[in-house]
Amino acid sequence: MIKALYILRRNGLLLYAKNFTDLKFDENLLYGFFSSVVNFSREGLESVVDFVDLGQENKVIFELNAQENIFTAAIVSVGDNNRLVKKILTNILTGFIDEFSPEYDLNLPKNREIMEGILKENLQWRGGSTLLFRFIISIIVLIGVGAVLTLLNIWVSRDLIFTNIPLYFTPYEFITQTIPILVLALFLELIVVFGLANFISGYILLDLRVSIINAVVYFIIIVLALLLSVQQILIYPIISFLPFVIIASLGGAYLGNELASRKRLK
User: Fold this and answer.
1) Least confident span in 8-12, 105-109, 166-170, 177-181
2) CB within 8 A of 231, min separation 6: which ones?
3) 100 and 136 share a domain?
4) Which structural domain, as residue segments, surrounds residue 195?
5) Residue 157 located in a structural domain
6) What is the band of 173 on the pLDDT scale with cuts at 50, 70, 90?
7) Is there a single domain that holds both residue 193 and residue 105?
8) Maximum distance among all alpha carbons in the chain?
9) Looking at the chain, which terminus has fewer C-beta neighbours within 10 angstroms, N or C?
């Protein structure tokens, strides 16, 4: 999440500041630090440093508009995606310049309201909910998705796979036709049941460590659900393909987390 946002001239003159949290920052010190980093990297490296790790799970990300000689600095969570934050900062800075250039006078209440609108437009739907809230939502979604996918798995296995296997077949037919069909069908089912569900969980949580915990809990729930169902035989494919189940679960959680990190802030 964006914890604090600053827009400054390259000489260190503050144009706008907003703290989105209750955290206290030594802002006078920060202004000089931000300006020094931007100017040093611009003059010495001919580019602007993307971010600086501030410690305590915080980092600052910079975005410079060279034509106007102003830049924005945002203190964000260390796990936030740099590209996403820079994209947001670029849009905010562009809106700021379009509305207030060249005076950049935000002392008027009307201009303050316009700036709040710019922030709302660019930060809306970009996250900000707590990890606990996302965890609760992910559990609710996983229970629902798990129930639907388990029932679907039972139906597909019973009505579409096992009922279509011929009662009599030669060993050659069993090896060359029946086994490949069963293996392919089971692979697809496991991808849907474990990969898709954990992808959704990872996307909601936006925290890989908690997503892995959710994947373990979800696996236990699915196994228990099958144990209590009338199709207990479906547990055996899960156990047989356990390495693939682990890969599908962790892979789904990772991909969901990666996609979410490009669209939302923590």
Assistant:
1) 166-170
2) 154, 157, 158
3) no
4) 131-261
5) yes
6) low
7) no
8) 86
9) N
DSSP labels, 66-83: TTTTEEEEEEEETTS-HH
Which residues are bridge partners to 65 per DSSP?
Answer: 70
Which amino acid appears at position 45 of this protein? L
| Distance, CA of 67 to CA of 69 (rounded, Å) | 6
177: Cβ contacts below 8 Å, ≥ 6 apart:
169
- Is 266 inside a domain boundary? no
Same domain, 256 and 135: yes
* Backbone angle region of 101, left / alpha / beta, with phi > 0 → left and psi within -120 to 50 → alpha: beta
Query: How crowded is residue 17: how many other Cβ atoms within 10 Å of its Cβ?
Result: 16
The verdict on 242 and 142 lying in the same domain is yes
- Provide the pLDDT for residue 2: 87
Total-model pTM: 0.70
Between 147 and 205, residue with greater pLDDT = 205
Q: Are residues 170 and 235 in the same domain?
A: yes
Tell me, yes or no, whether 50 and 147 share the same domain: no
Distance CA 169, CA 254 (A): 42
217 band by pLDDT with thresholds 50, 70 and 90 = confident
Task: State how many domains the chain has.
Answer: 2
40 assigned to some structural domain: yes
Strand partners, 74: 5, 61
Tell me which of 225 and 108 has the higher pLDDT: 108
φ/ψ of residue 14, rounded to 5: -75, 130
77 and 169 co-located in one domain:
no
pLDDT tens per residue across span 122-133: 887 666 677 888
Asked if residue 33 belongs to a domain, the reply is yes
